[in-house]
Design brief:
With 136 residues, the chain is mostly beta strands. The chain is 0% helix and 72% strand. The chain has no helices and 9 strands. The protein is elongated, with a radius of gyration of 18 Å. The termini are close together. The relative contact order is 0.23.
């Protein structure tokens, strides 16, 4: 068992389109986690289950169509998560792998276009990606 830090920076943002315009939403997540090793430390491969909480820095950029005003917004929400990570050990302390996680935003983050709800963020939240890990 151990603790870890995790940061997720999006490579692609989500876009919502309506007749009144569009909104692009993305989030950078930084947080702490509790990690449980599922394979022995001596194994060539790694498997870890983890859970924690992110500070999720959410940003939107709106583009109004025709007579609508373009506007963006930013905010921060707490986002607890659970996930799994698998990889290959590259030496005693470093490994490369992939992860998948699921979470849910503790605050309601609604994207509005022209005064109407067009979508939400973080209910649920899912992420996959490549990762590197350093174990002490």
């Amino acid at each position: 068992m151990g603790i870890g830090l995790r940061a997720i920076v999006p490579l692609v943002s989500a876009t919502i389109r309506t007749n009144e315009g569009s909104a692009t939403t993305g989030a950078t997540n930084i947080g702490g986690e509790l990690r449980i090793r599922l394979l022995p430390k001596t194994s060539l491969y790694t498997a870890t289950a983890f859970g924690g909480i992110f500070a999720s820095f959410v940003r939107t950029a709106g583009e109004g169509a025709a007579s609508f005003v373009s506007r963006g917004d930013t905010g921060t929400v707490a986002l607890p998560f659970l996930g799994i990570e698998a990889g290959r050990r590259l030496g005693d302390t470093f490994s490369l792998g992939a992860f998948a996680l699921l979470g849910v935003s503790l605050a309601d983050v609604t994207v509005r276009i022209a005064g109407r709800d067009a979508g939400t963020f973080g209910r649920p939240y899912a992420s996959t990606g490549l990762c590197g890990a350093v174990a002490f």
